Amino acid sequence: MVTMARLHVIGGGLAGTEAAWQAAQLGVETVLYEMRPQRQTPAHRTGNLAELVCSNSLGSALPDRASGLLKNELRRLNSLLMRCADRAAVPAGGALAVDREVFALAVENAIGQHPLITLKREEVTTLPDEPTIIATGPLTSESLAKEIEKLIGQEYLYFYDALAPLVNAETINMEVAFRASRYGRGEDDGGDYINCPMSKEEYERFVDALLAGETIELRDFERDDPRFFEGCLPIEQIARRGREALAFGPMRPVGLIDPRTGRRPYAVVQLRQDNLAGTLYNLVGFQTNLKWPVQKEIFRLIPGLENATFYRLGQMHRNTFINSPMLLDATMQFRHRENLWFAGQITGVEGYVGNIGTGLVAGINAARALHGQPQMVLPQTTMMGALCFYVSHAEARHFQPMKANFGILPALEAPPKGKRERASAYAERALRDLEALLECLFVT
Length: 444
Known about the structure:
This protein is α/β, with parallel strands linked by helices. It is built from 13 helices and 16 strands.
């Protein structure tokens, strides 16, 4: 008689607990490892499984919002953590916010009571040879990070995350902005750019706003780590080094001619295409610690972005993540070892609910592989499927983590005119396509 191998899940956060529960629900004996409270991280405060480190909000609960759609998809996929979150909900308007302790306790109870899950409170320092899911989150321990480096290559593992703001391409004013590459080469650091030109007066006003902008307070372990700003200065820090520093740095206008004036701008903000569909553009070199409401106000001072919609705002924080487009399939399986999957923030998916979702995908697929079944690939038209597709197919050279947003979904065939109507159409299509997949997989 052939005995099925055990599944090892490393990390008892949102992704790891979801992955372990999903695999166990499909009949796989699972060992879940969590090093806390034996060894704490600088950000966690308890030893609870699925501890929410930052906000207690899981984002919008509205069905026509990207986060709301993602929640509904995960509910349909029988997510344990979404069920726990719904039970632990506290009043939060249109958002799903939870009582942290009630939520964590619900997750702990479900994991502890499952007959096929063994919880081990210990640090993992070497990767098991048996089937494994790595879901160690943004604060992976140093010893395990070294093991991952050996597995994937040091050049594919990153410890600090500098996210540039993402703009909806439709909201860029192309009567002001223009497409061009430096010196008309046609290709500049990976492709054509959209350029937002600035006059001296516009540049001065922008710099003044940057210098006055309120920034977030860094946590001690970020502020004290010499690698935090290494090679990746926030734009407000660059501006403090001199009023012309940005014009000679990330906003240098060399090699560009504004077609409206026939002259080189005083400064320029370049936007680079961020997804395959061309619906998202990121502000090149615009990593920042400005608070999010401040970012919206300041970045709309940029000519061409005065009415911009931001799908993601800039941030910088300690975050261990891999270059997933080089390493993972959309199933969350590691391409170079068939019994290994990754889940959670280490994959480059941002946000609580997105991380729960990658755990769900990895857990189901690990179980299906152990049962000799084909792995589940969620439709790209679903929000979870689009996230998995993004982290496995984005341009590896410029890969940055991503959270749920409608900009990563394939375009609608006949999109309605209104923004809310388009969002509803995206959501309806996603849930319809998810149901069709579940029927094929005989999931009820």
